[in-house]
Amino acid sequence: MPKLAEQAPNTGTCDMDFLRWTREQAQALAARDLGHLDITNLPDEGESVGRRQRTALESHLCVLLVHLLKCRAQPQRATPSRRHDLKAQRAAIARLIARNPSRRAYPAAILDETYRDAVRDATGETRLDPRLFPPLLPFSLDPDFEP
């Protein structure tokens, strides 16, 4: 049986083997080998990386807000596991920002919209009346804040 690497053709396109393509593009850039750069796909893929970073921050922020809302609405269910989830989401957000410092202001910029999404998600997960959740963000995102 052929090895996986032998099965994948070296087409040079990002559609066939994205990891290989990114390595080839990085090598071509480092060598300033313009002839081997995929000028057609590089701009789109660069934008795509930025979108994935924004989406990841949005997702982690929403999950963090959902957990904070659930802790506030159901304090009797504030388990160590939920507190661990709060710390894990904060750590993931901090890690993304540390790797992409230009995204530092992004969570604050999307906070209101993300809070509305979090209220919707918390309502679905808890089956509580959405009016039990404050219409505006009721707490700080300070890493030391605990509900």
Written description of the protein model:
By secondary structure, the protein is mainly α. Helix content is 61%, strand content 0%. The protein has six helices and no strands. α3 runs antiparallel to α4 (80-99) and α3 (42-73) packs across α6. Residues 1-11 have low confidence and may be disordered.
Tag the structure with descriptive keywords.
6 helices; 61% helix; 147 residues; elongated; mainly alpha; single chain
Please identify the structural class as seen in this structure.
mainly alpha
Report helical residue fraction: 55-70%
SS elements, strand count:
0
- The H/E string reads HHHHHH
Stretches where pLDDT is under 50 for at least 5 consecutive residues are 1-11
User: Main sheet?
Assistant: none
**Percentage of β-strand residues:** under 5%
Which geometry do the CA atoms define?
elongated
Short description:
Helices cover 61% and strands 0% of the residues.
Topology:
Blueprint: H1 4-7, H2 18-30, H3 42-73, H4 80-99, H5 106-109, H6 111-126
Helix pairs in contact: 3-4, 3-6
